[in-house]
Design brief:
The chain starts with a strand and ends in an 8-residue tail after the last helix. The protein has 239 residues and is an alpha/beta fold. Bound molecules: adenosine-5'-triphosphate (ATP).
Length: 239
């Protein structure tokens, strides 16, 4: 579904992403991990044509994202609050996204019903504007909005960050449910190794913009990843 070919991004000559090739098949729940500055958001921003590659390209279902718009109807994402519209209430925002995806208000209301627990009584009917919601509640709105209209590719940047423990557990269940869906490709990034290993079928580790690990998730993945990141804090010689 997603094919990356010789993708690089540099700022003022400094490379921040250098990905020779990466193939993410349709239906995969894909996890991206890496320390601060590893290039995760850069990669997602390139997938969404929010920034331009320095070289190479990304194909989304065969469509090159920086030269065609045709990937947009089946792709959705929540990267950060800039995806929200601050002066709308959550309902108005959901209806707006629904309209973009060809759903009327009744369709959107029905879609939202199963997420009442996830919203924990603080989103729907609150009559607050999105700009006035807490960071965590804004994130809940952005994540759920990204599921509206059955997109085939969903990209979520650090979806667990800022969420309370109850919501994190609920979100894990929602994301894990996509493992059964062979049509939806879901990409998440996270700093939480436990969460990604629980919900992702495959995990790629980025380090200084490069793919340094690419593994199918198994029972040993969490330990291996903890080992990998622990090595980064081993004292260097002479310390
Ligand atoms: N507009 C920009 N100009 C210069 N450097 C940038 C710009 N945007 C990102 N970078 C750099 O690119 C690198 C990768 O950043 P990116 O946000 O992709 O990392 P990340 O893995 O998402 O990090 P984090 O886990 O902290 O969110 C960082 O060194 C960052 O400073």
């Amino acid at each position: 579904m997603i094919n990356v070919e010789n993708l690089t991004k540099s700022y003022a000559g400094d490379p921040v992403l250098n990905m020779e090739s990466l193939e993410i098949p349709a239906g995969e729940v894909f996890g991206l991990v890496g320390n601060n500055g590893a290039g995760k958001t850069t990669f997602f921003s390139l997938l969404l044509d929010l920034i331009r590659p320095s070289s190479g390209h990304v194909l989304n279902n065969g469509v090159q994202v920086d030269t065609s718009e045709d990937w947009k109807p089946y792709t959705s994402a929540f990267i950060d609050e800039s995806f929200l519209i601050g002066y709308l209430t959550p309902e108005e925002y959901f209806y707006f996204i629904g309209e973009l995806r060809g759903l009327n208000q009744q369709d959107v209301n029905e879609f939202l019903e199963p997420f009442e627990d996830f919203f924990h009584g603080e989103i729907l009917g609150s009559k607050k504007f999105l700009r006035d919601l807490s960071k965590g509640n804004q994130k809940k709105v952005g994540i759920i909005a990204s599921f509206i209209g059955n997109p085939k590719v969903i990209i979520l940047d650090e979806p667990f960050a800022n969420l309370d423990p109850t919501t994190q557990i609920r979100l894990k269940k929602i994301i894990a449910s996509y493992k059964e869906d062979v049509e939806v490709t879901l990409l998440i990034s996270s700093h939480d190794l436990l969460h990604v290993t629980e919900v992702c079928q495959r995990i790629v580790v980025l380090d200084k913009g490069k793919v340094v690990r690419d593994t199918k998730t198994s029972e040993s993945t969490l330990k291996e990843l903890e080992g990998f990141f622990a090595e980064e804090i081993q004292p260097t010689e002479g310390e």
